[in-house]
Amino acid sequence: MSTKRVVNALEYEAAVEVKRGIEKLSEYGPISWLIEFLAGLISRKVNFPTPDIEVGPLDEVKEPPYNGSLILIGGPVTNQISKFYLQVGSPQFRFNEKTQLYQERVNNEYTDIVPSGNTAIIEERIIKGQIIFLAHGFGEEQTKRAALYLINHWETLYQAHTDNEFGIRV
Predict the structure, then answer these.
(1) Lowest-confidence range among 22-36, 76-90, 145-159?
(2) CA angle, corner 142, sides to 23 and 70, nearest 5?
(3) Torsions phi, psi of 101, nearest 5?
(4) pLDDT band, very low/low/confident/very high, at 47 (cuts 50, 70, 90)
(5) Edge-first strand listing for the sheet containing 109-112
(6) What is the domain count for the chain?
(7) C-beta neighbour count of 161 within 10 angstroms
C-alpha cells in the first residue's frame, strides 16, 4: 500500500527557498569557509550534505520518520510530520484540532492565538538529540513568511537561542 502525499504550492515554494538558502550558506557562508580552511590544514575535503525536499505523508505519523535534523515547512493541518513533533513534549506552540486554533505556551499554560494575517511561527525543537525546525502559520502566506524569515535570520536566531528550544511569532 502506498502512502498518499500532498503539498500546496506556496509551502513547496517556501521549501525551495529554504533549500536554496542552505545551499548558498554551505557554499559561501562564513561557517563553510572556516570548516573548509580547517579541513584543508589536514589535507581533507569537506562535502556538505545536500538538502533534500520531500513531501510529507497524509497518513498519521506515529514515530520519528528520520533520525537527522529536519526543517519542516507547513503546520499540523497540512504536514503530518509537523503535527507529530508539535505533540511531543511541551512545544512553545501547538495546534488545537477541536478549535482549529494555534495555542501558545505562556507560564506553562496554553492560550489560544486569534487568527490573523500576521501569525507566522518558527520553532526549534530538540527531541532526543534530534534538532527540528518548524516554519508554519495561519495559512500558506504565513507559512511562507515563516520559512523565509528562518532562512534570512538564521544567524540572529542562532545567536539568540544557541542550543535551546524556542518558539517565536514573526
Answers:
(1) 22-36
(2) 40
(3) -125, 145
(4) low
(5) 93-96, 101-106, 109-112
(6) 1
(7) 13
CA gap 160, 166 in Å, rounded: 10
Residue owning grid cell 544567524? 155
pTM (two decimals): 0.75
Nearest to 83 by CA among 108, 110, 107, 56: 56
Residue 35: Cβ within 10 Å count: 15
**2 occurs within a structural domain:** no
Distance CA(135)–CA(103), nearest Å, equals 15
> Length of the chain, please?
170
For 125, the domain range is 9-169
Q: Is residue 3 part of a domain?
A: no
In a domain, 78, yes or no: yes
Cell of 134: 518548524
Q: Is residue 4 part of a domain?
A: no
Crossing angle of helices 30-41 and 9-28, in 10° steps, is 40
d(CA 17, CA 21): 6
Phi-psi label, residue 115: left if phi above 0, alpha if psi -120 to 50, beta otherwise: beta
